[in-house]
Inverse folding.
């Protein structure tokens, strides 16, 4: 009787151990997660994922040795949209996938299942995995992987803490200058929804745009109608294989439409040259109160405009908001351009023509707008901050007996720079932290002409008590004759 009782108690104890520790190890937990064990003792963790904006990847599988229950020791997730590196990488397929496991987990293999119907024409052989190098914060290709085109999976070894993506090696490699001719293919992108269409509110653009016309006429567009201008916006936001040039052939009335910016990420930044040919664009309405980079162009690599008037514009964004570009660091050149209307933004980088960006060139331009309800007389926020916060007494520039430009000392400013202009052309901004005079080597680098006059001053980065910040002039302006 005692033996039977002892045996019964041991069985109860074993059952309690199994149900208390790993009761959910061998069966489906819910509709999205499943745990199983192989004959070799490896635990397998399946997790379904569904990211509407990036629907290619459908399932994450982790196969690993685990001292415990893998569901408790290992976590996976689709890292979207929080991963900022996504917008800077060409050819991404699906969302980034993260894995975070304790040290009880080892010998890990990740398998990503994808929906071949969502590949938008990308050959399955082109799918390669990548991971983030934590030391360099860049994506790197994984060479040791297995591709199963029958079951539509990619498998590769991984670490306890890592972030992965899948890429089209042809798109990614072409952008990175790699030899990827073996993976070349041709595809009509107009047959598939673009990343822009998947991830953004396109307003009335896609109701108006003619995709075929956009591709056939790129990169030089002769625009006569709102439909054609919408087609250009589609090209920039969806394809963007070349810088765009627009010749406006007639006045346009956009007041009936909900417009959206051209250029919505670093991968799809606008490089735009716009010849207005003395025409008018009336009623540009862009309402993106939750978005950054909002304007006629949103994120732009460069914008050059001439001979056009935008009237009765109404532009609303959250951060980096401007009439013609929300954010642009490249060329910003405007000649005989005017803008009237209202601009709203919740961030300091809200301006007239340009929201966030470095200096621009504005020739014979006029501005008649309110920014957040206040009349604005500055073409950009950078210009506004620069002028209103200039401290030209912080440093004094002069020419010494060796005919070199020299500066005085001031320990109240950091990130100080020499700034050199040739007329209206900005030649260079160069760190001056460890220099009290401009060396000859800098003028030689600029290929300065002897006997020519250059404009020189100093800039520094300034923080204000109200939280605003930016570069400002911190010296007198010196006209220097290079000898």
């Amino acid at each position: 009787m005692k033996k039977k009782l002892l045996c019964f108690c041991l069985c109860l104890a074993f059952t309690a151990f199994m149900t208390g520790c790993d009761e959910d190890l061998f069966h489906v937990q819910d509709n999205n997660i499943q745990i199983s064990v192989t004959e070799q003792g490896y635990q397998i963790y399946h997790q379904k994922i569904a990211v509407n904006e990036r629907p290619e990847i459908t399932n994450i599988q982790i196969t690993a040795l685990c001292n415990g229950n893998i569901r408790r020791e290992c976590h996976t997730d689709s890292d979207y949209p929080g991963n900022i590196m996504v917008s800077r990488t060409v050819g991404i397929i699906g969302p980034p996938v993260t894995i975070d496991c304790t040290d009880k987990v080892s010998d890990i293999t990740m398998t990503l299942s994808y929906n071949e119907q969502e590949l938008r024409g990308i050959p399955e052989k082109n799918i390669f995995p990548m991971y983030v190098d934590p030391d360099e914060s860049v994506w790197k290709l994984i060479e040791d992987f297995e591709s199963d085109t029958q079951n539509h999976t990619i498998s590769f070894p991984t670490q306890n803490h890592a972030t992965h993506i899948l890429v089209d090696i042809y798109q990614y490699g072409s952008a990175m200058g790699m030899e990827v001719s073996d993976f070349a293919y041709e595809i009509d992108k107009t047959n598939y929804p673009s990343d822009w269409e998947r991830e953004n509110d396109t307003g009335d653009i896609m109701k108006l745009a003619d995709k075929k016309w956009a591709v056939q006429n790129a990169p030089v567009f002769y625009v006569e109608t709102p439909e054609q201008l919408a087609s250009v916006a589609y090209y920039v936001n969806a394809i963007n294989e070349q810088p765009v040039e627009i010749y406006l052939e007639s006045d346009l009335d956009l007041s009936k439409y909900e417009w959206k910016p051209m250029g919505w990420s670093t991968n799809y930044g606008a490089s735009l040259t716009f010849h207005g040919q003395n025409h008018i664009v009336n009623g540009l309405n862009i309402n993106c109160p939750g978005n950054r980079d909002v304007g006629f162009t949103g994120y732009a690599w460069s914008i050059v405009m001439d001979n056009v008037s935008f009237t009765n514009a109404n532009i609303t964004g959250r951060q980096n908001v401007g009439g013609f570009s929300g954010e642009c660091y490249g060329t910003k050149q405007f000649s005989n351009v005017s803008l009237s209307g209202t601009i709203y933004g919740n961030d300091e980088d809200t301006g007239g023509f340009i929201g966030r960006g470095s200096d621009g060139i504005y020739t014979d331009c006029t501005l008649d707008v309110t920014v957040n309800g206040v009349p604005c007389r500055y073409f950009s926020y950078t210009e506004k901050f620069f002028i209103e916060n200039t401290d030209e007494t912080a440093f004094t520039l002069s020419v010494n007996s060796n005919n070199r430009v020299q500066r005085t000392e001031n320990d109240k400013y950091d990130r100080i720079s020499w700034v050199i202009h040739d007329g209206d052309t900005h030649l260079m901004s160069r760190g001056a932290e460890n220099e009290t005079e401009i060396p000859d080597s800098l003028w030689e680098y600029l290929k300065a002409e002897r006997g020519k006059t250059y404009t020189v001053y100093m800039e520094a980065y300034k923080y204000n008590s109200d939280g605003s910040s930016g570069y400002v002039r911190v010296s007198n302006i010196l006209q220097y004759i290079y000898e």
